[in-house]
Input
Amino acid sequence: MSFINPSVRDYLTEYLKDALLLEAYHDLPLSAQWAKAVWEQYLKIDGTSASDRSKFAERFIPFAKMLPTISIWKRVVSDPSRVRFFDITFSRRVELLLKWWDATKNAAFIDAGLALLQKSADGFYAGLDDSNLVEMVADIRNRDADEFPHAEELGAALEERLVQLLDGGMKPDALESLWFRIDLYRHELPPSVIEAAYRAVAHEIETMAETVAEIDSETALDEHMQALPKLAERANISKEIVAVAMDAVKQRITVVKERTAEAEEPSFSGATEPERDIFGDAEIKNLFALLA
Output
């Protein structure tokens, strides 16, 4: 059965609103997405107490320790040189671990979160994790240190990962989306994050010619044109530098248009006689022979 079918999905969603049924499942989840879905389904069940939710969340402790080893990617079977999304991002996993900690106050979930954040930076990706990290940094800094004794250590690890993503370079559209989050949580974010966001904008604008040289989509280039002025204004980039970046995008758009026009230009080698179907007496006889 598949949850893609709306009728089946609605039926199973109601069927799985059964605490005893979910609690009877003892196998470890196959992915973080699976664990997240099971947890969220349990929260929808009426009549469960805080104690019930705590006990259910603690069942995920063995799985939580495995999270740093589970990749978010999976190789495409038909083409092993390609990969596809298989699981939720590392930042979403940390977010899930925090929810389990909130339900249990068990330090094992914080330890698992720190292990994820201390793992190689390859597990975090600009455009996927940055906005989530901004929200979590703000969340941690807003928590009462007496109620959340891990705030300083976890907050520092989150900030470090976020700054690393920003310093690694981001596309203009991803930066624009990120700045929207930064504006929402500006008062909760440390100076290191704000400064890294300014550096990311400055770097992207100053290296725009190199960035657009690899882009062959006119739509993507147009999006760069729209994002550039907004980002420059936020980071106080001089008009001269912005003008150079805009010219680089315009020149690239011209090149892409010319290549597209050349590729689409038709060529004619002379008139071609249209093919004619021959349908004579023999064909008519064969046609009606089928009805005999």
